[in-house]
Amino acid sequence: MKLTSRVALAVCTAISVAAPAHAADFREFESSAFAAAQAAGEPVLIDVQAWWCPVCASQNRTIKKIVASPRYDKLVVFQLNYDKQKDEWRRLGVSKQGTLIAYRGQTETGRLAFQTNSEKIEALLDSAVH
User: Fold this and answer.
1) pLDDT higher than 60, residue 60
2) Domain of residue 51, residue span
């Protein structure tokens, strides 16, 4: 094996180890994409977050750890911006940032507000995918 091939292999290996793979699909919230995912019967999580919210940051880290499992490979996580998408979160019945809402198709399967407990977040995600 040539030196350049070994270096390339080492770099690829380092990148795959350093960057955690997420089975879920993370997207910015768009009403039309959300409606399409629901119509297709996909499992969905809406993550209402604000950049300045420490609870939101904690939830995001927890969600990323949980959805690294292949059982969440069909889950779509829509990240809804609390500061910029007020009409959208109001339509969903949300009153504050740090709200997580799970759906299986068009059916809401649960919601959590300002909750950072990893077991409760995982149970919410499971409600969407099972």
Assistant:
1) yes
2) 21-129
Residue 94 placed within a domain:
yes
Distance CA 82, CA 99 (A): 10
The three-class DSSP label of residue 95 is: coil
Q: What confidence tens digit (pLDDT) does each residue in 4-46 have?
A: 444 444 444 444 444 455 689 999 999 999 999 999 999 999 9
- CATH number where 41 lies: 3.40.30.10
> Could you tell me the end-to-end alpha-carbon distance of the chain, in angstroms, rounded to an integer?
46
pTM over 0.85: no
* Vertex 92: Cα angle to 87 and 98 (nearest 5): 90
Rounded to 10 deg, the angle between the 54-66 and 118-129 helix axes is 50
Q: Are 104 and 40 in contact (CB under 8 A)?
A: no
Six token digits for residue 78: 């829509």
Give how many domains the chain has, as a whole number.
1
